[in-house]
Design goal:
The chain is α/β, with parallel strands linked by helices. It contains 6 helices and 7 strands; from the N terminus they run αβαββββαβαβαα. This is CoA-binding domain-containing protein.
Length: 155
């Protein structure tokens, strides 16, 4: 099922989650993680940046965390900007903290981690970008309305 997700499956995830930890977040405005964090904030998600090299810094007023276990409060989704070989450890940590979704960015696939996460009850999305999914015209209005009670991004 890796990389073969229905639009309804993705829409349901993006509509239901409230908090998203972004593992591999970067302060570099040219990096995809920076842009994705901004878009997720725009959509009203509680975003928690995770990068042990950035602890002590903040992005959009949000403090970086060293790892998932150092985050206070529930995390619904873990969005990963790390290499495929790092995904297994992140999946294990996501399970330990009680996350509901493991999501990896474009070109990041680890089938063993996906199986582990799914067996633990997490929904899994790999090789997709939530920013791009939220931009789909048939997906975005519904998610935006559910999340904010507004009709569009400009409301």
């Amino acid at each position: 099922m890796i990389d073969n997700y229905s639009d309804e499956y993705l829409k349901q995830i993006l509509a239901e989650v409230k908090s998203i930890a972004v593992v591999g977040a970067s302060l570099n405005s040219h990096r995809d993680s920076f842009k994705v964090i901004k878009r997720l904030i725009d959509y009203g998600y509680r975003v928690i940046p995770v990068n042990p090299n950035e602890v002590g810094n903040d992005i959009f007023g949000l403090c970086f965390h060293a790892d998932l276990k150092s985050i206070d409060g529930p995390i619904d989704m873990v969005d990963v900007f790390r290499s495929s070989d790092a995904i297994m450890g992140i999946a294990q940590e996501a399970i330990e903290i009680g996350a509901k979704v493991l999501w990896t960015q474009l070109d990041i696939i680890n089938e063993e981690a996906a199986i582990l996460a799914e067996k633990a009850g997490l929904k899994v999305v790999m090789n997709r970008c939530p920013k791009m999914e939220l931009a789909k015209p048939f997906l975005a209005p519904g998610v935006w309305s559910i999340r904010t009670g507004k009709k569009g991004l400009k409301d």
